[in-house]
Design brief:
Order of helices and strands: HHHHHEHHHHEHEEHEHEHEHEEH
Shape: globular
Structural class: alpha/beta
Strand content: 5-15%
Radius of gyration: 35 Å
Oligomer: single chain
Helix content: 25-40%
Number of helices: 15
Largest sheet: 6 strands, parallel
Strand order of the largest sheet: 3-2-1-7-8-9
Distance between the termini: 50 Å
């Protein structure tokens, strides 16, 4: 926008309107003053804006200069011309800056309500839940920290002190007894886990999942079993998937299949891929052929293991154990599959296994839940496992809103927060999940009590 001599901008805006437009931008305050000064000078000279703009200085009257109009000479306007020139120069500069700013804004990643408070974010999510949107919660180790269970990542995390190669099928096959005595029992002692109790965050999730009209399902990376141990009853059998296994359950694995062969799958069109359908069909057929359900179809309870009473005492995670107390902390022999008589590892997803390696992980159900979700909610996860990567990529590709409950406000590979950009629409709700999730439940409950839904 450029300012005309007569107080009318060249874009056709009246002087007063022009001043208002200019004053909206704080950076243009000086420009507004210059324009007003110039306009006042011309008003005092008695010059009509439209006459001046259209006729120019063609008027010639006796006794005045050759380019005068209405009895005023060019000299009368020198000061005003200089002021207007300054105004026009500043206007052009501001217009250029505004254009660049606009282009920069359009090309930069989209930001979503950066200034929103935690309360507003919780209300937004509560609205989605109470209105019946399909909401999938993906929970990680951060959810159980307040129950006394150490996380896997970070300075105090398990994987910062234990080599991840210890948690593989390959390591188990090489020495099953060492796997239990050197890795599993020191870091996942069933007796110690039996003392852990669900915290306020677990209870809040169980309550949210049973709200009227709520369509909430939970996929957990945790093997602690605390989701299904809440005081508040909820249909966890149908609404919960323990994607990484369950402490206290065991399985059978074949002697040679490491599950590390080619992951190619003939059904590439699936919107969410967490496992191989081809391998699933192969394993199901093999399990049926060899009549060992524990390789793929079923899990082994402690009481069904072929093991000494001492071994069963150490591996039993319940406080009401039918076995006598045992002071030992190591096994003398590994537990065996009751059918195959092979050493039986824990029912936990190992690093060289896929979600299709056992039916307990329900990868096809997980794919269905995530692909049909309206909202994805992450709770206490470090985004360092396959399921979170796949879920986030699906959210990016299909513009699915994401909410992230995490105590870590850092963004990046080492942080727990997600960056909101043009591909990912995310709200980071930073704080202790034992505080923020109960607050979410309270907001949902208030909505229900007020009969808003």
């Amino acid at each position: 926008m450029e300012v005309g001599r007569m107080g009318v901008c060249k874009a056709g805006v009246r002087r007063n309107d022009c001043s208002k437009k200019v004053k909206r931008d704080g950076s243009c305050a000086k420009l507004a003053v210059l324009v007003d000064d110039a306009n006042d000078g011309h008003d005092r000279a008695g010059i009509n804006a439209h006459q001046r703009a259209q006729k120019g200085r063609r008027g010639k009257r006796r006794g005045f200069g050759k380019n005068c109009m209405h009895g005023n000479t060019d000299d009368d306007y020198e000061g005003d011309d200089e002021t207007l020139e300054k105004a026009n120069a500043l206007t052009r500069r501001v217009s250029s800056d505004s254009s660049q700013s606009s282009q920069s804004f359009q090309s930069s990643p989209k930001r979503r309500r950066r200034g929103r408070s935690v309360r507003h974010k919780l209300e937004s999510l509560a609205h989605q839940i109470c209105s019946g949107k399909r909401v999938v919660l993906l929970t990680g180790a951060g959810l159980s920290v307040n129950s006394g269970i150490r996380p896997f990542r970070g300075k105090e995390g398990l994987w910062s002190q234990v080599v991840w190669s210890s948690a593989t099928r390959e390591a188990f096959r090489a020495d099953p007894l060492a796997f239990y005595n050197d890795f599993w029992l020191p870091h996942f002692p069933p007796k110690k886990y039996s003392a852990y109790q669900p915290n306020a965050a677990h209870e809040a999730i169980s309550k949210i999942a049973t709200l009227p009209r709520a369509d909430v399902t939970v996929i957990t990376q945790n093997i602690d079993g605390l989701h299904s141990a809440t005081r508040h009853p909820w249909p966890h059998a149908s609404k919960l998937i323990e994607a990484h296994g369950r402490l206290g359950l065991y399985k059978c694995i074949p002697e040679s299949d490491s599950d590390t062969d080619d992951d190619s799958d003939e059904e590439e069109h699936r919107p969410v891929k967490l496992g191989s359908l081809r391998k699933t069909r192969h394993k199901a057929a093999s399990s049926s052929k060899h009549a060992c359900d524990y390789e793929f179809n079923a899990s082994i309870n402690v009481t069904s293991l072929l093991a000494s009473e001492k071994t069963k005492r150490l591996l039993n995670p319940t406080t009401k154990s039918p076995f006598a107390p045992c002071s030992s902390t190591s096994l003398s022999s590994p537990p065996l599959c009751p059918h195959c008589l092979r050493p039986a590892p824990p029912q936990a997803l190992l690093f060289d296994e896929g979600y299709h390696s056992h039916s307990h992980y329900q990868f096809q159900k997980m794919e269905s839940w995530i692909s049909n979700a309206d909202i994805l909610v992450f709770v206490g996860t470090s985004f360092a496992v396959a399921i979170t990567d796949v879920a986030l990529e699906h959210a990016r590709n299909h513009q699915i809103p994401v909410y992230n409950f995490n105590i870590d406000s850092k963004v990046g590979h080492t942080g727990g927060s997600l960056e909101c950009n043009s591909r990912l629409d995310v709200e980071n709700i930073i704080g202790d999940v034992s505080d923020t999730l109960p607050r979410l439940w309270t907001v949902c409950d208030d909505f229900i009590l007020k009969k808003r839904y």
